[in-house]
Amino acid sequence: MSNFVINGLLQSRNPLLTFRRFRGKINIQRPRAPHYERARVLEIIKPYYKKPEFNAPCIDAERTKLVGKTMDNPYETIIAREARNWFEHSKLVALLHINSIKQEDMFKAQVTLHRHNVSVKVYGKSIMRKAVVDTRFEAILPLFEAKTAIIFSPEVLKIKQVLSVLKKTPQLVLMGGIIEGRLLSKNEFVAYATMPDLTTVRAQFAAVLDSAGGKIVSDLQCHQSQLVNLLDAYAKNDTPTSAISDEKVNS
C-alpha cells in the first residue's frame, strides 16, 4: 500500500514542452498574410521614398550653395570680427602658405614666435571674406583659396625674428605682408627687413640736412673769405716796400 502511495500518488511528473512557431513549415516565398490590425499598422508606417529627378544632385548642390550664402553663422561673425581687430591693430602682418607639415613642427614655430610677442592665426576663407570685405585689406582675399596662416605683431621691428623663424621652417612659405597698413610683396617684405629702423634713418636724414645747410653757408661766404684773405696778403706784402721808400726820403 505504501509503495502504491509513493509511486502512484506522491510522485510528480514534469510535462515535456515543445515550442513551435507555426503548426506547419514556414513558407518563405509565399508568407502568410498578417492579421488585419497588424496589416493596418504596417501600411501606415510603410516608408515612402520620392523618386529623385534626373538633375536632382545639381539642384541640391545649388540649393545648398544658396542656403550657405543666405544663412548667417553667428560664430563665424564673432571670429571675423576678431580677425578684423587683429588686422586693424597690428603694424606687422605676414601671410604664409602652409604646405604639408607636422603638427609638432607647427607648434614649435608658434612657440618660437610667441616668445617674440608674435601671434599666429589660421582662418578659413568664409571667415576672411566677412573680415576683410569692404575694407582696405580686401586685396589679400585671393590668397586664402588654399590653407593660409597669418602672423600678427604690434611691432614692426619683429620682422627680422619672423624671417629667421620662417627660414628654419621651410613648410611655411612667405607670400607677402602688410606693414603699417601698406601691402607688400615677398621681395619688398624681405627688403624692408634689411632697412635700418626709423630712428636711425631720421638721424641720417638730419645729418644730411645739416651738411647741406653747412655747405650752403660755406658757399655763400666763400667769395667774402677769399677777398679778405687776398686783402690781408696784399697788406702784408705792401708793408716792407712802403717802409723802404720812407727811409730813402728821410736820407
- Overall average residue pLDDT: 80
The radius of gyration over CA amounts to 48 Å
**How many helices?**
10
* Main sheet: strands, sense, barrel: 5 strands, antiparallel
**Amount of helix:** 55-70%
The SSE string, one letter per element, is HHHHEHEHEHEEHHH
Number of strands: 5
Structural class, from helix and strand content?
Answer: alpha+beta
Low-confidence stretches: none
Q: What's the CATH first level of one domain?
A: Alpha Beta
The CATH topology annotation of one domain reads as Alpha-Beta Plaits
Question: Could you give me the name of the CATH homologous superfamily of one domain?
Answer: Ribosomal protein L10, N-terminal RNA-binding domain
Q: What is the strand arrangement across the widest sheet?
A: 2-3-1-4-5
Bulk shape:
rod-shaped
Q: What percentage of the residues does DSSP assign to strands (E)?
A: 5-15%
What is the distance, rounded to the nearest whole angstrom, between the alpha carbons of the first and last residues? 204 Å
Q: Report the CATH architecture of one domain.
A: 2-Layer Sandwich
Question: How is this structure best described in words?
Answer:
By secondary structure, this protein is α+β, with helices and mostly antiparallel strands. The longest helix has 29 residues, at 222-250. The mean pLDDT is 80. The protein has helices at residues 2-9, 36-44, 56-70, 74-88, 103-115, 125-132, 159-168, 186-194, 198-220, 222-250; strands at 92-98, 119-122, 148-153, 172-179, 182-185. It has ten helices and five strands, in the order ααααβαβαβαββααα. It has a domain at 74-194: Ribosomal protein L10, N-terminal RNA-binding domain (Alpha-Beta Plaits, 2-Layer Sandwich), CATH 3.30.70. It has a five-stranded antiparallel beta sheet. A hairpin with a 2-residue loop joins β4 (172-179) and β5 (182-185).
